[in-house]
């Protein structure tokens, strides 16, 4: 798939520009509103991690693609009544912003499964219309997560303010990176900084992203 090659080349070039190794940044293919056959095609080309934010759609795809070695990330807003299904069917959750959700995911993770990998979602620019905890709340959430049996805290996820101003983009991503480093300095063993999408992955990589979430530039226009 030509689109995949172009995205991989962008990531590689961004890493080189940042003085980093290309292997330091992983690709999460955001497959929301795209059919299972497109997921299967990307898997055949070597992509294994897929992000979904609509639970029922994701569960249907997981059924249809059950024979494939796929890693599923939940990246959408989490309602309390959805935590059991998420805990049972996803390896990663990148959109946790409340203690209640952390607690429910831990309690509802089935016996026999590895602890669920968690990225805490930070509303780094304090935008009222967006989900995510404030930076101050993130510090408390990280401490709370470390005390839960079935949670493995991996890092932070952020969707910075929508802007085409490179300076503002750099500022937002840099604030996320600083918060990430603050948590690490306090003893949290974090390895994942999920930030950057199709429009801004180069700036995100320059500011330290370890995972970029790409939808449109991989799959094309979404099918509603």
Number of strands: 8
H-E string:
HEHEHEHEHEHEHEHEH
CATH domain fold name: TIM Barrel
CATH homologous group name: Alanine racemase
What portion of residues is helical?
40-55%
- The helix tally amounts to 9
Quickly give the structural class.
Answer: alpha/beta
The backbone outline, from C-alpha atoms, is globular
- Radius of gyration (Å): 17 Å
Q: Which regions have little confidence, pLDDT < 50, spanning 5+ residues?
A: none
Can you walk through the features of this model?
With 224 residues, the protein is of the alpha/beta class. Strands 7-6-5-4-3-2-1-8 form an 8-stranded parallel β-sheet. Strand 5 (116-122), helix 6 (135-146) and strand 6 (151-158) form a beta-alpha-beta unit. Helix 4 (83-89) packs across helix 5. The mean pLDDT is 95. The protein has helices spanning 2-17, 36-44, 55-64, 83-89, 99-108, 135-146, 166-185, 201-206, 216-219, and strands at residues 26-30, 49-52, 71-74, 92-96, 116-122, 151-158, 192-194, 211-214. The protein has one domain (2-10, 25-219): TIM Barrel (Alpha-Beta Barrel), CATH 3.20.20.10.
């Amino acid at each position: 798939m030509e689109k995949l090659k172009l995205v991989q080349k962008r990531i590689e070039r961004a890493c080189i520009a940042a003085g980093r190794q290309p292997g330091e940044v992983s690709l999460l293919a955001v497959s929301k509103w795209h059919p299972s056959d497109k997921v299967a095609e990307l898997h055949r080309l070597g992509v294994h991690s897929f992000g979904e934010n609509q639970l029922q759609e994701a569960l249907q795809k997981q059924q249809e693609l059950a024979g494939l070695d796929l890693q599923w990330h939940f990246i959408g807003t989490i309602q309390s009544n959805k935590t059991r299904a998420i805990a049972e069917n996803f390896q990663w959750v990148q959109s946790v912003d409340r203690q209640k959700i952390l607690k429910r995911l831990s309690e509802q993770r089935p016996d026999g499964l590895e602890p669920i990998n968690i990225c805490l979602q930070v509303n780094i620019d304090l935008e009222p219309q967006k989900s995510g905890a404030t930076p101050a709340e993130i510090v408390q959430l990280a401490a709370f997560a470390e005390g839960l049996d079935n949670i493995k805290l991996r890092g932070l996820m952020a969707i910075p303010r929508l802007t085409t101003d490179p300076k503002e983009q750099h500022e937002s991503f840099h604030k996320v990176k600083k918060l990430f480093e603050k948590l690490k300095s306090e003893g949290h063993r974090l390895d994942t900084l999920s930030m950057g999408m199709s429009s801004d992955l180069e700036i995100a990589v320059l500011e330290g992203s370890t995972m970029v979430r790409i939808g449109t530039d991989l799959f094309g226009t979404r099918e509603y």
